């Protein structure tokens, strides 16, 4: 499978805390921010660099700065919003778009209801965020939508994924790299990830 599983001890520790049903919304959000920032460090490893001359207090030197395309962060509403702050801590100049999709409870298929993207879609590297990659339907639909709008370089960042979701995204978008903090066992009969961590949106925003 085309998926990068983050095995850093801090990430694994924090994911375990998030799985605990006794972790409240405040701590859940904070942990998600922290994990996103740690994952963002790895997901941005391939950003291109260019030489730039700077004047230090002592002398001139040639250093490195990020070059090439700008970054766009695209949370899949609503749970994907929980990963935006962590990414903006890392890349404060990134533009944030939004894609609204919900999963039809009967068919488990994604239904689009909102899309707002930066105007310069073709000039940005996009990171799509969604804590849960279950069936892969919503993520695949969001990526398809971005491509239809002109996006050419897209990565998908999730907290917890099921093998079924990874397989679906791989099948629909083999060019998209997937980054996850945990690859879980499977989906249950209702399309929820096992062992998972429950409904990420509800746990982020304190709803039922």
From TrEMBL:
* Residue positions binding 5-phospho-alpha-D-ribose 1-diphosphate: 78, 103, 130-138, 199
Q: Would you say which domain of life the source belongs to? A: Bacteria
Keywords assigned by UniProt? Allosteric enzyme, Glycosyltransferase, GTP-binding, Magnesium, Nucleotide-binding, Transferase
Entry note: cofactor:
Binds 1 Mg(2+) ion per subunit. The magnesium is bound as Mg-PRPP.
**What catalytic reaction does the record list?**
UMP + diphosphate = 5-phospho-alpha-D-ribose 1-diphosphate + uracil
Q: In which pathway does it act?
A: Pyrimidine metabolism; UMP biosynthesis via salvage pathway; UMP from uracil: step 1/1
EC number annotated for this UniProt entry: 2.4.2.9
**GO molecular function (one):** uracil phosphoribosyltransferase activity
User: Into which EC class is this enzyme placed?
Assistant: transferase
Per its UniProt record, what Pfam families does this chain match?
A: UPRTase (PF14681)
Sections of the chain in a coiled coil: none
Q: Which residues bind uracil?
A: 193, 198-200
Q: Does the keyword Nucleotide-binding apply?
A: yes
Q: Where does the Phosphoribosyltransferase domain start and stop, copy by copy?
A: 5-207
Cofactor names: Mg(2+)
Q: List the transmembrane segments.
A: none
Q: Give details on activation and inhibition.
A: Allosterically activated by GTP.
Q: Which family does it belong to?
A: Belongs to the UPRTase family.
Annotated function: Catalyzes the conversion of uracil and 5-phospho-alpha-D-ribose 1-diphosphate (PRPP) to UMP and diphosphate.
Q: Which PANTHER family match?
A: ADENINE PHOSPHORIBOSYLTRANSFERASE (PTHR32315), URACIL PHOSPHORIBOSYLTRANSFERASE, CHLOROPLASTIC (PTHR32315:SF4)
The protein's matches in HAMAP family, at most eight in alphabetical order, are given as: Upp_B (MF_01218_B)
Instruction: Report what the protein is called.
Output: Uracil phosphoribosyltransferase
Q: Which organism is it from?
A: Veillonella absiana
Cite the source lineage: Bacteria, Bacillati, Bacillota, Negativicutes, Veillonellales
Q: Which gene name does the record give?
A: upp
């Amino acid at each position: 499978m085309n998926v990068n599983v983050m095995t850093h001890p801090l990430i694994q520790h924090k994911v375990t805390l998030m799985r605990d049903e006794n972790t409240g919304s405040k701590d859940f959000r904070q942990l998600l921010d922290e994990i996103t920032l740690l994952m963002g460090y790895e997901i941005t490893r391939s950003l291109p660099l260019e030489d730039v001359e700077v004047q230090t207090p002592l002398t001139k030197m040639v250093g490195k700065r990020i070059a090439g395309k700008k970054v766009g962060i695209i949370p899949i509403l609503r749970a994907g919003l929980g990963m935006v702050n962590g990414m903006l801590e890392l890349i404060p100049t990134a533009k944030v778009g939004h894609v609204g999709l919900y999963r039809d409870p009967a068919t488990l298929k994604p239904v689009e209801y909102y899309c707002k993207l930066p105007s310069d879609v073709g000039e940005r590297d996009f990171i799509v965020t969604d804590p849960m990659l279950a069936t892969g339907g919503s993520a695949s639909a969001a990526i398809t939508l971005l491509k239809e709008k002109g996006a050419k370089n897209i990565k998908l960042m999730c907290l917890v994924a099921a093998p079924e979701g990874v397989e679906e995204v791989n099948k629909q978008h083999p060019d998209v790299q997937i980054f996850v903090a945990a690859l879980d066992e499977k989906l249950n009969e209702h399309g929820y990830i096992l062992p998972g961590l429950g409904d990420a949106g509800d746990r982020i925003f304190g709803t039922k």
